[in-house]
Amino acid sequence: MPLPREITKQVQVGGVALGCGATIPLQSMLSTSTADTVACLAQIADLQEAGCNIVRVAIESSKDLAPFELICAKSPLPVVADIHFDYRLAVEAAQRGAAKLRINPGNIGSVDKVNAVIDAAGEAGIPIRIGVNSGSLEESLKEAADLSLASKLVLSAEQSVRHFTARGFNDLVLSAKASDVPTTIEVYQRLSRALPQVPLHLGVTEAGTAWAGTIRSSVGIGALLASGIGDTFRVSLTANPVEEIRVARRILAALGLGAEDLATLISCPTCSRCKVDLMGIANEVEQRLELVKKPLKVAVMGCVVNGPGEAAEADVGVACGKGTGAIFAKGKVLYTVAEDQIIEALFSEITS
Fold it and tell me: pTM (2 decimals)?
C-alpha cells in the first residue's frame, strides 16, 4: 500500500521536485525587508547553508516587485512569492521570476481576480500554493456556527481546488494550517483522503518561539509525516529563519526521512550516579556536532549503567565515571580520559 505522499501529483518549484514520493523539500520565509536585496540574498545564502530547499518572500506593494525580480535572478534557491489581498502583485510576480505563487483565495477577492492569478501562473509555467487559514475564510464559512474550524478549513480548501482544476490548472500545492496541533492534524488527514492527488505543504501556523514552536511543530508535523502525509513543510518559529531549517532537518532525521548528513547526539538523563558535568559536556558536544557533516551517532552517557551497553549502536561515545570518561566505539571501550579531556577525545575520534 503506497503512502499518501507517494501518490500525490509531482510539481516543480524551480528545479526542486515536490510530491509523488520526492525527497521532502524544506521551506522557510525571509524575515528581511524585500526592498533590501543585499540582506535578502545574504539570508538566502544562510538558509541554503543550513539545508533549506525553497524560500518564500513577502510582496506587500508594487515597490517590492523590482527588488523581488532581482532576488529571483540572483537567488541560489527557488523563490516563492507570498501575496495577500492584491491579485495584481501575484500576476506581476509570476512574470518577474517567481518559482511559485502562494495565495489565499479567500483574501484575493472576486473570482475574476483569482482567475487572473491562475492564468498568470499558467502562462509562466509555475505552480500555486493555495494557503488556507482561519483568518481569511470565505464569509459563508466564517459564519457557519455548526461547523468546526477543521471542517471550515477543509471545505475552503476543497472549494478552491475544485475551482482551480475546473479552470484546467493542476500544478497545485495545498496548505490548511491552524495554530492548534490537534486541529492541524485532523485537517491534513482529511485533506489527504479527500484530495489524494494534491501535494500537501505541512505546518503549524503561529507556532510560537524557538522553544514552544519547536515542540508544537515537531508534534504536529512529525505525526503527519510519520503517517505518510506531507510533501513539504515549514517549521514556523518566532526566531531566525535558519532555526526553522535546523528544527526541520531534525524532524526529518528523527523519522528517517532525510537529512542523512546530520550527526545525532544520544545522551542519557542525569541521575545521582552521574559524577561529571554531564549537561555541560552534552551541550558543548551538541553545539560542535552542528558543524559535523557525517551521519554519525555520538553518545554522551553519565555512567556505566547507560554506557557502552545501552549505547552500543553509537559510532563513538563516552561513558563517564568519577571525573573520568571511557571513550568507546560501537560498544567497545578504547581508552579512558580525565573529565576535562572528554570533549576533545570524542572529537578526535569523530574526525579521525
Answer: 0.92
